[in-house]
Amino acid sequence: MNSKIIFGLIGVGAVIIILVVGTSFMKPQEPQNNDQYMTKENISSSSSNFTLPVNYTSTDLLNYCSHDESQVYNDICIRGLWEVGDGCKNANFSSSNPICSDPRLGNFEMKVNKEMQDLDRSLLQFVDSCMNVTSENDIGNCSLNIDRIKNDCTDSRYASIMSICNDPNMNKFAEKYADTSSKLKPEQ
User: Fold this and answer.
1) Is the pTM of this model over 0.85?
2) Could you tell me the CA-to-CA distances from 84 to 35, 78, 94 in Å, in that order?
3) What is the mean pLDDT of each run of 10 residues along the chain (188 residues)?
């Protein structure tokens, strides 16, 4: 009886060790290049599970952002590669950095622009629908999300490509539901 328990515990321990060791081998390794180091502090992000090292290169970022189609939704990839793309417009940066001629950078920017256009249409529809809400719950939800949109619009690059940032309905909503929204916001 005791030997069965001991063998069972050893078996469970072995499975745990295999899982821990196996996941460490499956974790992608980030290449280490010596070109144009960036830091996380240069790129605003709300992502808490970002796997790039603290100091990474623009090439590391492009490799990370290009490896998976879903990265076109990753704020770090979008803003980081916007920064790289803007740098590539500078002759000194582009002449010394091979990333500027990497077709993945342009492909990523095209994908992001398409997604941003779709997002812009969705946000415009959302704000329009908020103009007709009646329940406090819906007003609170709209108010919270419109505040988030306005916050995103403080980024000049984002605001330059998103027509939602100039949508007068965001201010009209704030005016129309000012009393209800003020009651719903937590005291600070």
Assistant:
1) no
2) 12, 10, 10
3) 48 44 38 40 41 79 87 88 89 82 92 92 95 90 92 90 94 86 60
Q: How far apart are CA 173 and CA 106, in angstroms?
A: 37
What tokens does 161 get? Answer: 């490509």
Three-state SS for 44?
coil
Q: Tokens 């709209």 appear where?
A: 142
The closest of 174, 152, 173, 175 to 164, measured between CA atoms, is: 152
Q: Which of 85, 93, 90 is nearest to 111 (CA)?
A: 85
* For the chain, domain boundaries: 28-101, 116-184
Instruction: Calculate the alpha carbon distances from 61 to 2, 29, 70, 81 in Å.
Output: 54, 13, 14, 8
- Rounded to whole angstroms, the Cα distance separating 101 from 95 reads 9
The torsion of the CA quartet 113, 116, 121, 123, rounded to 10 degrees, works out to -170
DSSP alpha helix (H) spans, the chain: 2-26, 58-66, 75-88, 91-96, 103-130, 136-152, 156-161, 168-176, 178-184
Q: Is 55 helix (H, G, I), strand (E, B) or coil?
A: strand
- Residue 52 is encoded by which pair of tokens? 């790039």
